[in-house]
Amino acid sequence: MQNKDFCVFILTHGRPDNVITYKTLKKCGYTGRIYFVVDNEDKTTDRYIRNFGKENVKVFDKKAFADKIDEGNNFDDRRTTTHARNASFEIARDLGITYFIQLDDDYVKFDYRINGAGEYPKDKFMTRTKLDQIFDSLLNFYKSINAESIAISQGGDWIGGFADSWKFKRKCMNSFICSTGREFQFAGGLNEDVNTYTILGNRGKLFITIPFVSLTQAQTQSQAGGMSNIYKLSGTYIKSFYTVMMHPSGAKVSMMNTTNSRLHHSIKWINTTPMIIAEKYKKENTCE
Amino acid sequence: MKQTNLFGKDVYQDEEGEKKYTSKIEAPIYEPKNKKPHILELCNKSKTHQLIREIGSSKLSYEEKTFLVDAARRHNVFNYEKIADYYAHSNPEMQHLMERSALVIIDFGKAIEYGYVRLCDEISKQYLEEYAE
Question: What does the pLDDT look like over A244-273, one tens digit per residue?
Fold first, then answer.
């Protein structure tokens, strides 16, 4: 990594022996710093420390962070990544690191979605050795603009292949690149990524998904630990309604017709995020 | 040979007959329309008004009604395309206050537009290096 003011935070819970993302990062050539963000309610904390070293495992007080935000429920259930995401800013500050990327613990690969000719790659996708350079490029872009966060696309964004354009999306999920200088708060006990980019996006904060690369997660509800138990409990039914509750003028739930049909949030973008327009439309005020 | 696919994308066939999907790299910078919309077009308040009518006809206390009316405004549906159109045709004072309320995002110095194209070039080059090795 050329950027030395950067690290990876892997947000993880209950999977000390199966942090897939760690292996994937190493395999794909990432050489920068990696920290494991673990909550103090995780019974496997000692094993994380044994596996990865005390200096690399950052334990935060989950209840304390839960008490600081609107969880959107009164369940007293803290099985969520929301608090780890919010704790990351404080952990980064303590480490003296300005920029970081939050990654879940179950990424099996990172892919290119654009090839050397500026086209959607036909067969060769996988990043094999260049993850350092990819993270550097993403971070340089993030540093150059006034966005709260940027993220890379997910495998799910590409179901159906290259059907849209190279225009970026105004959302962020999973892999948030953040700065301690642009701190924001994730909201809601579930669906915190969507809640956050809709609530803050609605107030003119910029969140961007970069389409040129993507990450692929191990299939939800098939991995032990993490958030799997809570998703199995309610499917995505309850999860989806958090965003409707928090952004009722632009979010609704609708049926997602994939192999396993389920309810999912649906965002009406024209009613959610203010448009980005060129500076030429801004008129100079000639009156003193 | 150039064709257009279902999504309106240009599809090229190279010499080996393989299809390639190409597209112009650009950030989604909104281009305001030439016509200034009416101010009432910027925000749909029908759900809010419906809720406020129900609140008004209830027997709740003044404080509770006030709270519910505040909450009902969460259902105001803003149309950000029309808002951007309106901004482009407004006077500087209105523009300033619209910016203060983050109703549009100005791409100062084309930082987003140029930065995005540069990012695309870099990732594209990294792909080329990776698969040329």
Answer: 999 999 999 887 776 667 778 889 999 999
Instruction: Please list every residue in chain B whose beta carbon sits closer than 8 Å to the beta carbon of residue A159.
Output: none
Nearest of B6, B80, B30, B129 to residue A133 by alpha carbon = B129
Q: Report the pLDDT averaged over residues A275-283.
A: 97
Cβ contact, residue pair A116, B127, below 8 Å: yes
Helix, strand, coil share of chain A (percent; to 5): 30, 25, 45
CB environment A207-226: b (16+ within 10 A), e (fewer): bbbbbbbbbbbbeeeebebb
Q: How far is A55 from chain B (nearest CA, A)?
A: 32
* Mean pLDDT (whole number) for B91-95: 97
Q: B23 and A133: CB-CB below 8 Å?
A: no
Mean pLDDT in chain A?
90
B62 inside 8 A of chain A by CB: no
| Residue A228: pLDDT over 70 | no
- CB-nearest to A276 from B30, B122, B127 is B30
Does residue B105 sit at the A interface (CB-CB below 8 Å)?
yes
Q: Quick one: pLDDT at residue B6?
A: 33
Q: What is the dihedral of CA B27, B33, B39, B42, to 10 degrees?
A: -40
Domains of chain A: 6-227 (3.90.550)
Region A212-237: mean pLDDT is 68
**CB A150 within 8 Å of CB A138:** yes
Q: Residue B110: closest CA among chain A residues belongs to which residue?
A: A278
Question: Is B112 in Cβ contact with A145 (below 8 Å)?
Answer: yes
Which of A28, A275, A284, A288 is the best mutation test for B, with the most CBs of B within 10 A? Answer: A275
Phi-psi region of A29 (alpha: psi -120 to 50; beta: other; left: phi over 0): left
